[in-house]
Amino acid sequence: MKLTRMLPASCLLLSLMIPQALLAQKPASSESPSYYNIGGVLSNNESESHFGTVIAHLNFDQQYVPRGTTYYDKTIRIDKNPIKTALNVCKHLISRRVYAVVVSHEPTGDLSPAAVSYTSGFYQIPVIGISSREAAFSDKNIHVSFLRTVPPYYHQADVWLEILSHFGYTKVIIIHSSDTDGRAVLGRFQTTSQTNYDDIDVRATVESIVEFEPKLDSFSSYLMDMKTAQSRVYLLYASQEDAYVIFRDAAIHNMTEYGHIWIVTEQALSANNTPTGIIGLKLNNAENETDHIKDAIYILASAIKEMTVNETITEAPKDCDDSGVIWESGKRLFGYLKTRNIRGETGQVAFDDNGDRMYAEYDVINVHENHSFVKVGSFYYESEKRKMRLKINDSSITWPGNTGKKPEGIMIPTHLKVLTIEEKPFVYARKLLDDEIDCADDEVVCPHFNITNGNEQEYCCKGYCIDLLKALAQRINFTYDLALSPDGQFGHYQLKNHTTGIGTTVKKEWNGLIGELVAERADLIVAPLTINPERAEFIEFSKPFKYQGITILEKKPSRSSTLVSFLQPFSNTLWILVMVSVHVVALVLYLLDRFSPFGRFKLSSNDGTEEDALNLSSAIWFAWGVLLNSGIGEGTPRSFSARVLGMVWAGFAMIIVASYTANLAAFLVLERPKTKLTGINDARLRNTMENLTCATVKGSSVDMYFRRQVELSNMYRTMEANNYDTAEQAIQDVKDGKLMAFIWDSSRLEYEASKDCELVTAGELFGRSGYGVGLQKASPWTDAVTLAILDFHESGFMESLDKEWIFHGNVQQCEQFEKTPNTLGLKNMAGVFILVGAGIVGGIGLIIIEVVYKKHQIKKQKKMEIARHAADKWRGTIEKRKTLRASLAMQRQYNVGLNSVSKSVSQNSEKTRYPILPPLPRTPERAWPKDKEYIVSRKSTSAGKPPPRYMPTYATDVSHLIV
C-alpha cells in the first residue's frame, strides 16, 4: 500500500476500513496453531525489552501455556503520526499473523492507539491497551476489539460516590468539560447513583451541572451562579490546564475557604495551584507500563488456553491485502478476553462488557499546606467479598480553610421559593383586579407564570395551606416567595430516552409542581400534595399534615315520584289481596245475612212492615266503607253472625290503614336515598357499563394509584379516556349530571359534600395516604418542617384549620337536613289528586249515563201510558154504549108496564136521593155527569188517584124501584 502524499488521520482511518484488494482467506486447519505471535506497539526500548522477556518466561509457565504451544513477540515502536503507526501495524504485525496486539500510549495524544485499534479491529484482531484511558475507547461501535488493563477516566465517578457516601454528602454540584470524557463522567455518576444506591436518603443527587468549554480563560461567571446553590460540594472533572483556571478564580471568590468541599479527578489534582483541603484520586500503577504489559500478556495466554480447549482457533490474517473474510476466531477470542478475572501485578484484573478495566485501585489524596500530597485513604479490591471497598482516615484530612473540622457541605438558605396550586379548600386563588394595589390581610401574593405564553399574572391566595405556610415560616424562621404551579398540574412523569456518554438510558421526566422541585427551581411545595412512592423517589416529603384517602363523589339520586307513588307502601301482591278481600268479605256478609233466620225484624212503624236482609250491593258498600273509614248509615248487617264478621273486618281494616299510613311516611317523608354506588368494589365500577361514567384527574396521585393496582386495570382502562384536567371541571360535571362518579382525594370531596348537600361520598376510603410538604432531595429543611408539623398536630392547630377551611360547619347542617323529614309536594301526592279527579270524572260520566237512560225510560213510559189511555178510552166507549142500550131497553120495558106510577112521586124521590150538582163539563170518560161516582172520582182525581174505569147506569124512570 503506497501513499503519494500525507493524508489527515481521519482520512487514513477511512482508507484502512476499505482494503485495496479482497482475497479469499486460505482454508483453516482442523487443529489450533502450535505457535502464536503476539504483537506489541510500545512507547520505548524498555517496554519492548520487557515485552520480550515476559513472553519468554510465559513459555515456561505450564499454567498458562500447555505443551506444544509457543508464544513469540513481534513489537514495533509507536509513532506520533497515527498514519505511520497504522502502516507499521499492517507491515510488521498483521503480515506476521499476530493473534493479538498490546498497545501503549504515546505521550502527546490518543491518535496512535486509536489507529492501532481501527486497523486491528477491522480484521477482528484483539487489541489490549495498557495506558489509553479516554472514554472514546469504550464505544464498541468504533473500537470493536479493544480492551484495556487501565480504567477510563470516567470510572472515577464510582469512587466519587463512595467518598460522598462516606462523608454523608447528598447534594453536589458537578463541574465538567464539554467533551466526551466530561459528559461520560456525568452520565456514569448519575447512572451509578440510581443503580447501586437504593437508599434514597443517602443517595447523592446533583443540584447543579456546570459544563464549560475546554481551554477557558475565566471561570468567574460560572462561580457566581454556583454561589446561589445550596450545595457546597463540588465534583470537578477538568484537564490540568482548565483546573488551573478554575482554582484560580475560585480562590478569588473565596470558594476555596472553609465550608466548601472540592473532590477532583487525577488530571485536576495535578494542577500547580490546587488549594489546601482538596481531595483527589490517583490510580495505582497508572504509569507502570511494565506491570501492565505483563498483565496483558498473561490475560491473553489465559484466554487462548481456554479457547483451545473449547474450540479450534484458525490462523490469523497474514496481511492487510488478504482480509476479505472477517477472522471469526479473533471475534470469539475477544469474548474470551472479556471474561478474564485474575490477580495480576496491577491488582485484580477483570473487564466489563465494554472491555474496560474493573476493580481498579485508587489512592485518596488530600492536599495539605505547601502543596503537599498526602494519602488519606484507598479504594481497593476486597478478595473475601469480591468487591471494591473505600477506606479513609478522617483524622488525617485537612479541609479547606486549613481546618480539621468537616464542613456541612451545604448552605441553608433562609429565603425560599415556595410553590402551590389552586385546590379548594386548601388554596383559593383569585386574580388581582386592576384597581387593586395589594392583596387583603388574610391573603398572600402568589403570581402565576404561564409557561405556554410566558405571561405573568398577579394572584392572591388564601386557604388551609396558606395558613400552614405562614405558621411554618414563623415557627422555623424563614422567608418565602409564593407562586402558583406554572402548568397548573401537581406533576406526573413521562418516560423519555436520555443520551449519556456511555449510552442511552430511560429517564422519568416530571412536570407540574414535582418537575419544578426536581429541577430545583423551587425549594418547597405547600399544597395538598399526596405522598406516594413514585414522587418519593425524586423528592422529599415531610410527615403528613393531613391524613386522607381516596373516595368517590356522586350526586344523590332523587327518588322518582310517579303518579302511583302513594301505592308504594304496599307491594302489588298485597294490594291485590286487599281488593280481593273486600269483595270476598262482602259476599260472605251477604250470604250470612241472607240465610240467617234472624236476618229480618219488624220496624217500629205503625204499618207493621219488616226490613229486608242485607243485599249484595249494600254488603259491598259496607265492606268498602269500613275499609276506607267512612260512616255507614244504612245497609249494615242484621244477623249476629254477619255482625261478628263485620267486627273482624273492621279490625282488619284498622290494621291495614295504620300500616299503610306508617309506611307512607317512611317512603315519602322520612327516607332519603343515599348513594348509587357501594364503593370501589362495586361491580358496576369494576366492570364499567356504558351508562356509568367515572373519572379522575390526569397525572394525579389518584391516577398513579390506579396504574399501580393490577386488580383495577380494567377499570382504569375505561376511565382513562374520561379523565379531566382539573378537579373543578369534574366536580361541576357531577353536579350537572354529566359525570356519575368522580374519584379523588377524600378531603376535597368531603368538603364539596359538606358545601352542597346534594352531593355525597360513596363507600369507605381506600388507598389511604396523606398530604405532605414537598422538599428537594436532601433538603436541610426536611427535619425542621417535619418537627413543626408534628408539633402542630399535638397543639391542635391542624384541627383548627380543618374546622375553619374544610368543614365550615356545613357538615352539621347537612346532617340536620338528613334528619329533617321531606316536605311532601305535588309530585309526591299527584296520584291521589288524580284519583280524586278520576272519581269526579267517573261520577260525572255515570250521571250522564243515568240521565240519558232515565230519559229513555220516561219516553218509553209515556208511549206506554198513551197506549194505555187509548185502550181505556176505547173500552169506556164500548161500555157506555152497552149501558146506554141496556138502559133504553129497560126504560121502554118499564114504561109499558108501569104507566100508573105518578110522575111527581118519581121526581120527588129523585130529588131526595140524588141532590142536584152544579153542571160540569162532559168528557168522553164520563157519560153521566150527575152520577155520584163521578163526584167521588173528582175528589179522587184531585187527591192524586186515578178515576174509576167505568160508571154505573143511571135512569130517571126507575124511581118505582126505590123502597
UniProtKB/TrEMBL annotation:
GO MF term set: ligand-gated monoatomic ion channel activity; signaling receptor activity
Name of the protein in question: Glutamate [NMDA] receptor subunit 1
Signal peptide limits: 1-24
Primary location: membrane
Domain Ionotropic glutamate receptor L-glutamate and glycine-binding: 448-519
Annotated positions binding L-glutamate: P528, T530, R535, S701, D745
One example of a Gene Ontology biological process annotation: ionotropic glutamate receptor signaling pathway
GO CC annotation: NMDA selective glutamate receptor complex; postsynaptic density; postsynaptic membrane
Organism in which the protein naturally occurs: Anopheles dirus
Site (Interaction with the cone snail toxin Con-ikot-ikot): R707
Disulfide bridge map: C757-C814
